[in-house]
Amino acid sequence: MIGAIIARKAVSGSFEALNQHDLAKFMSSWHDGGVFIYPGDISASGTFNGKSAVEDWFKNFFDQFPRIKFDIHDICVRNIFAIGGTNVVAVHWNLQLTNRSGRVGQNSGVTVISINAGKVTIVRDFIFDLGENFKLNWGAA
């Protein structure tokens, strides 16, 4: 149970760092070899290998979206008893954002986070609406 509490607190802090555009805090929990996978068929989509590439992706995300507000609905932890900082966490969220052109958008999704020895190793985003709304938010439609 202690593992679930620690994981939930860490993940909530990471999403709050995103809401605050606090890149240093957000990236502090990433492993040097961390991987981020973002869905879709826009220029921001793909697999980003290494902490530097992930950090560049999130810099772009913050530039594209001056206003970001993640509302977390559920945080599910694979191993509630894990105390060594190794676990898998799934986060169900809603997102409200404003892009740099002033367009207000929203989306929902699930982020699956693999953590090893207290550091994020792989993050996979699953976004519910990858259609026109998603593309308009990114200015790709």
Commentary on this structure:
By secondary structure, the protein is of the alpha+beta class. The protein has one domain (2-137): Nuclear Transport Factor 2, Chain: A (Roll). It is 30% helix and 41% strand. It is built from four helices and six strands; from the N terminus they run ααββαββββα. The protein has helices at residues 2-19, 23-27, 51-64, 132-137; strands spanning 30-38, 46-49, 67-77, 87-98, 104-116, 119-127. Strands 2-1-6-5-4-3 form a six-stranded mixed sheet. It starts with a helix and ends with a helix. The model has no long low-confidence stretch (mean pLDDT 92).
Q: Please count the beta strands (DSSP E, at least 2 residues each).
A: 6
Number of domains: 1
Distance between the termini: 45 Å
CATH architecture: Roll
CATH topology: Nuclear Transport Factor 2, Chain: A
pLDDT averaged over residues? 92
Q: Which band does the percent of strand residues land in?
A: 35-45%
Q: Characterize the main sheet.
A: 6 strands, mixed
Low-confidence stretches: none
Strand order of the largest sheet: 2-1-6-5-4-3
CATH class: Alpha Beta
Q: State the helicity in percent bands.
A: 25-40%
Order of helices and strands: HHEEHEEEEH
- Overall shape: globular
Judged by helices, strands and strand pairing, the structural class is alpha+beta
